[in-house]
Amino acid sequence: MRDKRLQVLASNLAGYSIDVQPGDNVLIDMIGSERELAKLLIEEVAKRGGRPFVETSDRSVLRTLLKHATKEQIELWASFDLKRMENMQGYIAIRSGENANELSDVPGENMQLYEKLYRHPVHSEQRVKHTKWVVLRYPNASMAQLANMSTEAFEDFYFDVCNLDYAKMDKAMDPLAELMSKTDKVRIVSPGTDLTFSIQGIGAKKCSGHRNIPDGEVFSCPVRGSVQGTITYNTPSVYSGVTFENVSFTFENGKIVEATANDTAKLNEILDTDEGARYIGEFSLGFNPHILHPMKDILFDEKIAGSLHFTPGQAYEETDNGNRSAVHWDLVLIQRPEYGGGEVYFDDRLIRKDGIFVVPELEGLNPESLK
């Protein structure tokens, strides 16, 4: 018997998230062993008059491929998949792999080739900019372990988060998006963090289930050369299969001039991918009421209630500061009291303290209002 929660999720993804229209070509990109959700998505896309296409892949196979790939091979691979993506109006990715660190031993130069020659043109430039897309994880024992939960408890948590009333959340985001659009100076203060930058003229974008599931953030972007000071992130993050902890950046005139972590050498190798990787491409406040603790999964961690992320690399077109990079790395700082607390100021006005919005117009984004 099919899990009714899966049916709801599939319907929400095809209907609410990417709004499949008759004649839309939709690529369902299935990473890992999950099959039931892929079947339900095929049915939901077809029910709406769309044309479903399916790609299935495995991270362990990708690992072996990347370890032996040549520059010419990756370029040819990218040309095939870019042509396919150019013919898609919609894209749904389900990531259900068992091992978050599967790519950790792929040589750094091979990962850089993959990011630059494949991921950047196919996904950052074509899929992100020219399709209706949504990306989600699928619950499994590995994710439950990362979240320090039993598998069954994690599945209940997952469906609470993913089947949240995102239409209600969308309306509650309006005042924050409006305030961000009018703000010039932002200051962030937390243990190990005192950071200032401008978002003047950049605008703001709501994220309420149309791009990621789970969701719950409003993002903008710093004026490229405006970032000054230091930020110390308190959330572990997996990038290219490597887990980074205690990441700290010091900025001068927008550029990361010092970067340290548990693996400082590997961190700086990523930041040296290209010139834009040492500049910031996104600033966002997260507030999903059901996500409280990190689980080394960016799709969840960047939505943690009372968090923010400050992202080295590529800027989004919707809030564009002109920064271009093969890197886009959402590193997370949680400011709730149990994580050290902290404040966010817009134009010298305190708008969030210890993870709770403290100005009347934003109180609708606090946990008790969104659950």
UniProtKB/TrEMBL annotation:
<dbReference type="GO" id="GO:0004177">
    <property type="term" value="F:aminopeptidase activity"/>
</dbReference>
<keyword id="KW-0031">Aminopeptidase</keyword>
<dbReference type="InterPro" id="IPR035097">
    <property type="entry name" value="M29_N-terminal"/>
</dbReference>
<dbReference type="InterPro" id="IPR000787">
    <property type="entry name" value="Peptidase_M29"/>
</dbReference>
<keyword id="KW-0482">Metalloprotease</keyword>
<dbReference type="InterPro" id="IPR052170">
    <property type="entry name" value="M29_Exopeptidase"/>
</dbReference>
<dbReference type="Pfam" id="PF02073">
    <property type="entry name" value="Peptidase_M29"/>
</dbReference>
<keyword id="KW-0378">Hydrolase</keyword>
<keyword id="KW-0479">Metal-binding</keyword>
<keyword id="KW-0645">Protease</keyword>
<comment type="similarity">
    <text>Belongs to the peptidase M29 family.</text>
</comment>
<protein>
    <submittedName>
        <fullName>Aminopeptidase</fullName>
    </submittedName>
</protein>
